[in-house]
UniProtKB/TrEMBL annotation:
Keywords: Cell inner membrane, Cell membrane, Membrane, Peptide transport, Protein transport, Transmembrane, Transmembrane helix, Transport
Keyword Nucleotidyltransferase among UniProt keywords: no
Name of the protein in its database record: Oligopeptide transport system permease protein OppC
GO biological process, one term: protein transport
InterPro entries on file: BP-dependent_transpt_permease (IPR050366), MetI-like (IPR000515), MetI-like_sf (IPR035906), OppC_N (IPR025966)
Subcellular location: Cell inner membrane; Cell membrane
Secretion signal span: none
One GO CC term on file: plasma membrane
Taxonomic source organism: Arthrobacter cupressi
Lineage: Bacteria, Bacillati, Actinomycetota, Actinomycetes, Micrococcales
Segments passing through the bilayer: 37-57, 99-120, 132-153, 165-185, 232-252, 272-291
Entry membrane topology: Multi-pass membrane protein
Amino acid sequence: MTNLIDTVAEVDEARAADVVIGKGRIIFRRFMRNKTAVTGLAIFLGLFAFSLFGGFLTTWDKETIDPLNIGMGPSPEHLLGTSQAGIDLLALVVEGTRVSIFIGLIVGGLSVLISAVYGCSMAFFGGKVDSVMLFILEALIMMPAILVVAVATSGGGQSLKELPSWLLLIAVLLFFSWMGTARLVRSLAMSLMQRDYVKAAKYMGVPSMRIVRRHLVPNIGSLLVLDFTRGITGAILAEVAFSYIGIGIKLPDVSLGVLIGGATWQVSSFPWMFWVPLTVMFLLTGSLAMMNDGLRDAFDPTSTSIGRAKTKKKSK
């Protein structure tokens, strides 16, 4: 309730100063007042920058072997140590972080787009179209994801084996990641179909896909933004899990899951090889969780977890 009063105070202040504040700006202000969410954003941006420019911190790459430092701990020459094969761990972690973030962004973004279009289309057309699309959706949800991943990345035929393992994993994760959100979007969009502006657009002969794109999708934007951050987290965790058990990304491709899985059975002998990528994974998923909580509170005007807005004192 306090946060709702603060938001109203901001709007009243803007009206008094003849300034129009858009909804996006209000949400941005509320998000930036959440210290936890801002901290999560800073950590994520730092890891993203590390994945892009971390290679400049070392003169070694993920393919070069140092025969004089095989399985060695952190040193001035190798800041994070080396693997059992003599490869610089910092170079491997940079590559693994980049691959994991890339998978998360691609799967999270495309799954939101697919679920929004599919769910809104079901609600808009209704009738038999909705029944058929809902039947297809329910059938896909029943498919075992882990079995499909194993077949696609291990025994999918010669043509699939020639593709990079990370590309196959993206395709499989994207195939399964949009279904739950699409069903939720359908229920929300069906309530929007009863609004007067949607009925007026249909009566005026506005094309169906334009109504879906301009009237339905924007009105469920908060759900889609939150699902985007959740989708990134889910894709990264799925990549780590599948690669850990050997059915995800495979060598010579590198990811956080590959590094964690490869060092699990040698934690006592090479602890740096296990704890460094595991720490990066925790920081990555933890920062996304903090950002998601901040976005949820920013979109919710009744939330009381963000604090009070600063108001200007009226000059006498």
